[in-house]
Amino acid sequence: MQQILGYIRRAITEYGMIQNGDTIAVGVSGGKDSVALLVGLARVRSFIGIDFSLKAITLDNQFNGLPSDYSKIQQLCDEYGIPYLIRRTDIGSIVFDTRNETNPCSLCARMRRGLLHDTTKALGCNKIALGHHYDDAVETFLMNLFHEGRIGCFSPVTYLSRKDLTMIRPLVFAPEREIRNAVNRAGLPVVKSACPVDGCTARQSAKDHLNDLEKLYPGITKRIFGAIRRGKISGW
């Protein structure tokens, strides 16, 4: 995890993500990225010299009407002394059964985002930390370009004025492969997504396309990421 801690520390420092007194809600889906973020922030706060606290939130979509088992995430939070809230929702049934969405990811993301913001405020947190990483940034850039015809990406730090919350992404410098390796080496628990379209999304298509481009133009992911930074796109 040492490399991941270095990436997190760099992001916090370069973008001023965290200040003394912050209470940060970590969005924990149970996937490798959010678990690495949770553990990374828990470890970083012991040496970074900033006094902040953490709380963890999981929104369970309850696909097929069944709750997912997050007991291993609970154990992980207990190990690091992080308060953990699992909020069971009907998002799965609304998206796939009631609405029968042809583009389920869009509605699901909107519903989860609103609920996460409300839950964060209810817990008394002033910031939300999400597990988007280096590769996610490049994939998002490509998705915006190919699907919407615009130059843009998510931002490392975003202030949500309507909720008076700040969203931070401390893993933005961490490549996905290194996150996966770190989680495996550390034996951290991962909860597999029960989403019916997992692996068949527009993001997965962007990921596959980027992998194909890497084979043709080795290093293109790094060059695109560098261009996003140099162009200061979306607050980068």
Question: Could you characterize what this model shows?
Answer:
- The chain is 49% helix and 12% strand.
- The protein has 236 residues and is of the alpha/beta class.
- The protein has one domain: 3-Layer(aba) Sandwich (Rossmann fold).
- It has a six-stranded mixed β-sheet, with helices on both faces.
- The mean pLDDT is 93.
Shape from CA axes?
globular
Across the major sheet, the strand order is: 3-2-1-4-6-5
- Tell me the CATH topology: Rossmann fold
Mean pLDDT across all amino acids: 93
Kindly state the number of beta strands: 6
Observed structural traits:
236 residues, 9 helices, Rossmann fold, alpha/beta, 6-stranded mixed β-sheet, globular
Structure described in brief:
With 236 residues, the protein is of the alpha/beta class. It is built from nine helices and six strands, in the order αβαβαβααβαββααα. It has helices at residues 2-15, 32-44, 71-80, 91-98, 104-122, 134-148, 176-186, 202-216, 220-230, and strands at residues 23-27, 53-60, 84-88, 127-129, 157-160, 165-168.
